[in-house]
Design brief:
Elements lengths: L1 H36 L7 H50 L9 E11 L21 E4 L3 E8 L8 E7 L2 E10 L12 E5 L9 E10 L5
Parallel strand pairs: 1-6, 3-5
Antiparallel strand pairs: 1-7, 2-3, 3-6, 4-5, 4-7
């Protein structure tokens, strides 16, 4: 009988222990649920980790997009500068600037001739057709200028300023013709192309020629 009672007592102790362990587990579960429900947005720790990873990826994408945008803007700036530089180079190559610097000065006598003069063909040495009586040339840099014949010391298409003549205080002219008696050390320094509408006669002495452009700038 005593052995039977001892067995019952041990069984009861084991039963009570099992109940206590179960209650403890329930308490932990309840405490976990309470702590979880206390989160501001009702999310578990795993959910928070997932959201943090998503936000990090989004931030990385934003940074990458910003870097790409900055590179694109830099490339566009470089292209604009290159286009601007190319345009400037083209402009300076095709449209030379007007210079006021005097390259050389000559003094001498100026004579006059017309397109239909004796031994004249109506074409200048440079190939211009002046049979229609034209006496001006439209230069891309100096504008409307007179046409003259000059010696080899003044290359074709050179621009000169004629001073102390009947043309006024100063007249611009371009060298487009040659002449056997025209040039330094010859009878005349320059020969001015005229037409029947102008009343020049004889020659004009002691004129001054200032060379502004030697030849034609290309």
């Amino acid at each position: 009988m005593k052995k039977i009672m001892n067995g019952i007592n041990w069984g009861l102790i084991v039963f009570i222990f099992i109940i206590l362990v179960g209650v403890a587990k329930d308490a932990k579960s309840i405490n976990f649920l309470v702590n979880t429900k206390s989160l501001p947005i009702d999310l578990t720790s795993r959910d928070k980790v997932v959201i943090s990873e998503a936000q990090a990826l989004e931030n990385i994408d934003n940074i990458n997009n910003k870097v790409k945008e900055e590179k694109l803007n830099k490339n566009n700036d470089n292209i604009d500068k290159q286009v601007e530089k190319t345009s400037y180079d083209e402009e300076t190559r095709t449209t030379p600037s007007k210079e006021n610097k005097v390259l050389a000065t000559y003094k001498g006598t100026m004579s006059f001739y017309q397109a239909n003069c004796k031994n004249c063909t109506g074409y200048t040495y440079s190939g211009l057709d002046v049979r229609d009586g034209r006496i001006y040339y439209e230069d891309e840099t100096y504008g409307k200028v007179r046409m003259i014949a000059a010696g080899a010391e003044l290359p074709q298409w050179s621009i000169v300023s004629i001073k102390n003549s009947s043309l006024g205080d100063e007249a611009l002219a371009i060298v487009v013709d040659r002449g056997s008696h025209i040039g330094l050390g010859k009878t005349y320094l320059i020969d001015l192309l005229t037409n029947s509408n102008e009343k020049f006669s004889g020659v004009e002495k002691n004129i001054t020629i200032e060379l502004l452009r030697r030849g034609k700038t290309i």
